[in-house]
Amino acid sequence: MIAKIYYAFSCISWCGNIRGFSIEEPIVELSKYASNQWLSDIYENQMLELLRRKVWLQIGCQEIKIENTYFYSFLEKGYQCCKSGEYEDSHYFARARGIGHKLAAGLGSQVGFLVNMNHNHWVAVVLDFKSHVILIGNLMNPEPYEESCIMLQWWTSHHSGHQFAESALDITHQQDLVSCGLLSFNALAHHFLPATYPLTSASQVQNGQLQVLLNIVNQHLDQVKTSSPRLEHTNTNYRVSSLLVRIISSRFHLQQQGRRLTYKLKAWRCHSSVIQSLSTAIQALSKVTMSLLIAVRHLDHQHRSVFQKRKSTISL
């Protein structure tokens, strides 16, 4: 896994933004996946976009809708103003209404999304309009949040006219305070694509985040149409890549492998310097070649002029 991460780092430039996502964040933000920090909505939405693409590629899964982390806030605000009729009239709720109407009309079967509870905990939610079930995956507390369930019941019944049952979503229970981001996403992905996303054990959360990192880099490279590693190993790229290798190595207790990768980084940096020198030499050689061509053309012109003068003299 570490070798794959290093190879991925060698393929991209650490300047600019991540391509291929609805919101383009700075590429340096990818380092968060290699840490033990709590993942914010930026990273959860990136994972949800990857899942949305995979779901669409699966035969028979086109009826499944994957929404971003902001979808829940629309439902929450819609519930707060449902009595005033604003939910039905305001353009602000157009997307939430459209999804609800499609699901109720049979043009979709399920919608899945992640909810940020209390600004510090991620919960996976699936609303199954075909089976009339609300599935909630809560890692810390088996009992769902009561207020959230009331709001979800309002939205589902508002569009379908049915009272939904409530059930627990299969999920791995976290053993720390920061892994809810990966585990809640994993539960959501496992529900829709169990063969592709088996449930991750609590001890494999770090590997899961690194796999997400690789998937994001691949998506980025697909967008920039890079078919092979580009020689962009500047000093900045070297420092950032070396730092990330050290972070990953220390996190996974792979000091020896980390040192080997750091040595390779230094070697690649030297190769890059050599290639840059060769490029400069080629440019200089090109300039010399152009000068020689101009000189040859000038001599040829002079030769033709002398030949014409001699020919004229002989004729006279």
CATH topology of one domain: Adenoviral Proteinase, Chain
How large, in whole angstroms, is the Cα Rg?
30 Å
As a percent range, the share of helical residues equals 55-70%
Main β-sheet description: 5 strands, mixed
Describe the protein's architecture and organization:
- The chain has helices at residues 2-10, 41-57, 71-80, 86-89, 94-104, 146-160, 180-192, 205-223, 235-251, 255-315, and strands at residues 64-66, 110-117, 121-128, 133-137, 165-168.
- The chain has a domain at 20-223: Adenoviral Proteinase, Chain A (Adenoviral Proteinase, Chain, 3-Layer(aba) Sandwich).
- Strands 1-2-3-4-5 form a five-stranded mixed sheet, with helices on both faces.
- With 316 residues, it is of the alpha/beta class.
- The radius of gyration is 30 Å and the shape is elongated.
- The protein is built from ten helices and five strands; from the N terminus they run ααβαααβββαβαααα.
Helix and strand topology:
Layout lengths: L1 H9 L30 H17 L6 E3 L4 H10 L5 H4 L4 H11 L5 E8 L3 E8 L4 E5 L8 H15 L4 E4 L11 H13 L12 H19 L11 H17 L3 H61 L1
Parallel strand pairs: 1-2, 4-5
Antiparallel strand pairs: 2-3, 3-4
Helix pairs in contact: 1-8, 1-9, 2-7, 3-6, 5-6, 9-10
Quick recap:
It is built from 10 helices and 5 strands. The protein has 316 residues and is α/β, with parallel strands linked by helices.
Using brief descriptors, characterize the structure shown.
about 325 residues; alpha/beta; Adenoviral Proteinase, Chain; 5-stranded mixed sheet; 10 helices; 5 strands; about 10% strand; elongated
